[in-house]
Batch of 4 targets.
Target 1
Amino acid sequence: MMEVLKTVDNRLVQLEAPEDGAWIHLNKPSQKEIASVSELLDVEKDFLTAALDEEETSRIDTENGQTLIIIDIPYVNDNDGLIIYETLPLAVILTEKNIITVCLKENTITNDLAESKIKNVHTEMKTRFLLQLLYRVATRYLLYLRQIDRRSAAVEKELHKSMKNKELIQLLDLEKSLVFFSTSLKANEATLEKVLRGRFVKLYEDDKELLEDVLIEIKQAIEMSNIYSNILSGTMDAFASIISNNLNIVMKVLTSITIVMAIPTMISGFYGMNVVGIPMPSFWPVCGITVLITGGATLFLYLKKLL
């Protein structure tokens, strides 16, 4: 799907076709749309298809006066009610007259821009538009990291009540999400530092300040993801030890119960044999002795805290 938007009278309006100063957003584009944009705006086709690979890492490249910036953006995947946080590449292409974004999936970041949820967005100011987009990406990472922290705390409370595989799998998914975030944020930081040098993108004084703010947010997100990842990893190890300890306790109790139940079984086995000369052949004395021995064994195991 292709959207063409342009700032008119301080608000974004949708256009029928690309024109100078417009923002062209390609969301999961078809080969026909890619070929059309490449021909109309004279854009390198490889630039347009770069972000369609989910494994594409954050980088910056320039060719024929066009600049390609690929950044990893956070993405929430709802899988049958189980929320998983992932990352996917977003390509930003700066041409002489336009700015183009390409993404494999619909995401909240470009949607917020298109729906004018970000103030003072001017599509003709390509550098400013790029930095506003990058700032939105950084703040979205911070938002999702706080959500991950709250979700992990909620899952921990559930684990205190009952040790279930479902909660442990949720913690494992959150830990995996933090690894994805940390890796993507570090790659984004390296790309932004290249932008800050001004070799690939022309920066003005105000733009440098905004880019520095973006870098600060990215560094904060990296630190938060590392902290949360370490905490979650320690929590997983702790709960794994607790589950193992609980299993040992259960096995100890079951073994003690087996020992107690074996006493009357063993005595009844002796008296159930078809032999002569067994002491106290009467039923009630043997039954009483069996109860006394079983009770004594139970009391002994209880005092030793084995039951």
Note: The chain has two domains: 2-244, 245-303.
Target 2
Amino acid sequence: MILEAALNEEVDAFLNRGWYERKAESPRGYRNGTRTRKLQCGSGEVEVRKPKIVGAEEPFQSQVLNRWQRRSEELESVLPALYVEGLSTRDFKRALGPLLGESGLSRSSISRLNQALKASFAAWRKRDLSEEKVMYLFLDGYYLGVRKGGREKDALLIAHAVREDGSRVLLGVYLGGRESTESWKSTLQDLVDRGMVEPKLLITDGSPGLCRAMKEVLPGSARQRCTAHKTRNVLSRVKKSRQAEVKRVLTSIFHAACLEDALKATSDFHRRYGKEFPTATEVLAKDLADCLTFYRFPESHWKRIRTSNVLERAFLEVRRRTDVIKRLPDEMSALALVFGVLEEDRMRWNGIKMGPEIRQAIVLAFKRMQEEPIRVEWAEKFAA
């Protein structure tokens, strides 16, 4: 009833007269009954009687109901979101049948609607980053199946950042053949070319390709190696019966009250396990100083910046969604879907506390890392 009333008001304005009203001047056209149209909207499928106009010099175009419109704009905007949340194109007709009515939705219709997601991603991936005041940059990779005629998987490379106001922003989503130096170098260079200011701290795992790329493209940033990855790597070299014991010692390193206590705990680990578990000790020694960088930064941020868990949790959402599809049809489909999932995850993130004093502390910590890098002498000797 509301739609039909709005359509009739449009016709009145177009003809410059109401029902059965006559004008002295020549009429612009005449009403000639109605045509029934079906429209899918939030309350289900409804039938609307759309007025017909004849004898007009120009065709009547409704702003309420476009000529070929079969569903409301609100419903169309919801469908790509459902796709991001996990509903595959084959599921729409079955899941939304009661809402969409007899006409339903074809797979091609859903695919066309999802072009809006791809268009949004295409514009987003080229946007200027010069206004993004980045403090912390999280980098990580994840292997994703993309249909290219083979069974291999491609490396999904993600760049997430924390701004100076504490909010999080997704900077880049890329697809590389693998987590190689060239793939990561291309990723980081794209961020720099689009205006990203060099971050104060990079939080990463131990990927050799990523480490080399960072030194080439972002040599001035301090680096924090993920302590969760380091812990898992060390424990994998320890027999299972002793892993709980060794893990407690590692926790005393990465969850110490201060840097000095952490350094003492590393020496204790070397003294206790250097001979018994030499391979595990060697793994801990490699880049150990980078694992302790977070101690120089504000204590209120330690929990968030000592690991790359921000991205690990986001990858869980990506896996939940992509496991439904198994293999994505092409690169753009893969990246657009991952972009949608990660944006949904980012908007649920509460951010971290940032204020003038904390920002100043980050700047001072960054300068100190440049002037006085953390050194663990026994680890340097052991690794050598």
Note: The mean pLDDT is 82.
Target 3
Amino acid sequence: MLEERSFATVAIASVRAQAENTPPPRALWTTAQLGRPLGEPNDPAFQRRVLMAALGLLTDANGPVILRDFTEDPPGWSDRPGWVPPPTRAGPADALAAEVMALRPAWERARARFGRTTVGLALQPPEAWAGFIARCLAGEEAVVAGHASAALAWRFLCDDVKAYYGEAGQADGPAPSSRQLDNWFWNATVAGAALRALRVAGMESANNGLRTVAGRFFVPTPFVDNG
């Protein structure tokens, strides 16, 4: 409709097959991580190159459908040599709570280093997360004050857990790649296993909202079947 009214448009696509099937009048596909079509945070030079490539399609007259590839991988895709995740020191007793608290010093350092945090959506402190997840896995549609539904409470808890671990993993030295952080979280932490279990619990719930958020937002597709 915008194009019919003489407004030229261009999309930046993270999933090429989706762009091919839609298809928009113009689209630039990037190799960046899903959710980061312009690449990594704090890399304005790379982000500008993506934007300029996308805007360049506005002058291309080869349509009506134009699909181009931006094949330069974001620098953040390159693994950082020698990166070691922060220690979790989780024991068998109450492993998730122990792991979360073991990471607290690294998370505090990251928050001080970057002057911000994205943790806080769950409206629960980190020390409450393990108990909340345990209630959910026991079959309770657990909620917290401030969220209108169990679906929102569960979704924002998952967001906070992932943000907390991701920030802790960047507390010291040069940043690891997104791939390193993801592989560590989903394949080597108690929290990653807990969120996969929470996804299963949500999808098996009779609550339609829980089924929706569990299937769409808890676990990235490459890690759904791990563990």
Note: The chain is about 45% helix and 5% strand.
Target 4
Amino acid sequence: MIVLRADAIGMCFGVRDALAVMAGVAAPGDVTVHGELVHNPDVQRDLDRRGFQRSPEDARAVPATPVVLVTAHGISERERRRLLHADKRLVDTTCPLVEKAHAAARALAGQGRRIVVLGKRDHVEVRGVVEDHDRAIVVETEQDAVYFGIGHLGVVCQTTLSLATAERLLAAIRAANPGADVAFADTICSPTKARQQALADLLLRVDAAVVVGGRNSNNTQKLVAAAAAAGVPALHVEGPADVDAAFLRGRRVVGLTAGTSTLPQTVDAVEARLRELAGA
């Protein structure tokens, strides 16, 4: 069995920078991570071990610690003001490309448009955008793209959405609202696009794929879905222990990719396990 890596794989700069900030925190017990820093179970376990406090992603209670760390997924300006009003000191690790999505939504709202966000309505990043715009609409599936009765719409994307999904949802919105002026800002982040394209290229050369990433990582889930849509069997693993020997049986060429919150050492460990099973 041959194992091929995607050309673009694993951790993005936003996650890397957020982890670098965490590594420099001298007193973890004084810091509450406002939700999940990244959707990666290994990272979460390490933060817990170091003594960081953690609030649920949907928590409304003000953290008890003097310092609150804003995760790479960002928060709304409304939530930021709430925390500052409670005299909390903020350490902000929001990814710059998430900030770009917020800025795009503000610009479209400034044109008098109702904001529409393409993405998962329960995702922390989507909630952060929606909370800053009254009557914002979330379109997660084509069934959500109904007639809104609004003349001017401003559409942005969750940064980890697949481009194919965004195009499909945008077309559905325009079809359901034929008289509306729809302005679209493509806010899918460049690392997500790069990993999606690298996987598309890889799928042409393999007969199965292994995708490494957290179970609740949206961009990892999109990579798994992309393989399935291309007719290539895919196995989603969080680490080497999840690699299923039965899935690999009879495979000639297996592709390896990983989501943007996956640690390099985790990718290496999964590849080593694949090669171990190939040798066996």
Note: The chain has a mean pLDDT of 93.
